[in-house]
Amino acid sequence: MTNNVGKKFLFPHKLLSVFMLLLWLLMVNSIAPGQWLLGALLAWLIPYLTQSFWPQSMALSSPMLVVRFVLVVLWDVVVANIQVAIWILGPQKKLQPGFMKIPLLLEQDFTITLLANTISISPGTVTVDLQMEEGYLLVHSLHVTDVDAAIAEIKRRYEAPLKEIFECSTG
Q1: What are the DSSP calls for 11-46, one per residue?
Q2: Which label site among 14, 31, 118, 126 has the fewest CB atoms less than 10 Å from its CB?
Q3: Which string of DSSP letters, residue by residue, matches 115-150?
Q4: Domain count, the chain
Q5: How far, CA to CA in Å, does 81 sit from each of 70, 75, 84?
Q6: Are residue 81 and residue 165 in the same domain, yes or no?
Q7: d(C-alpha 55, C-alpha 5), whole Å
């Protein structure tokens, strides 16, 4: 087996490069050939120059599961926006804020980061701490009546698909 430490790969993170190109085109709101060229250059150059910072390679086990996961997250963000608006603007309902310790089954830093960010982009919840030694994320929720049910929902809707997408193919 060969040692790949210090070896630079021409296209180290293909998935990240595709994502960066698409993100670039969305940010500049243009599909002009020059934007494609500049976006492709940046999408290749940034992962190429930063590949030594990535201890693990990204591999997808199921692209369709990625699409499903993204749709679930987008739906949850829309629903959470409406729910938070109702809590804030609606009848004065007593909010029950609270902290939850979400035990992690995820092992890779990248996947844990995705989970933490997914939780935080949904209005009403924010990841406030990661305890790697104890193996949990600390999450604050604006309103939680059943902590165990909320933890189970996060694990089912976000952690399980992320594990299947990014960590099942690594063995």
Answers
A1: SS-HHHHHHHHHHHHHHHT---HHHHHHHHHHHHHH
A2: 31
A3: HHHHHHHSTTEEEEEEETTTTEEEEEESS-S-HHHH
A4: 2
A5: 17, 10, 5
A6: yes
A7: 10
In a domain, 6, yes or no: no
| Same domain as 100, residue 139 | yes
122 with 47, same domain: the answer is no
pTM recorded for the entire structure: 0.70
Q: Is 87 within 8 Å of 45 (Cβ atoms)?
A: no
Same domain, 83 and 46: no
Q: What are phi and psi of 103, to 5 degrees?
A: -65, 140
| Co-location of 109 and 33 in the same domain | no
Domain that holds residue 127: 63-170
Q: How far apart are CA 112 and CA 107, in angstroms?
A: 7
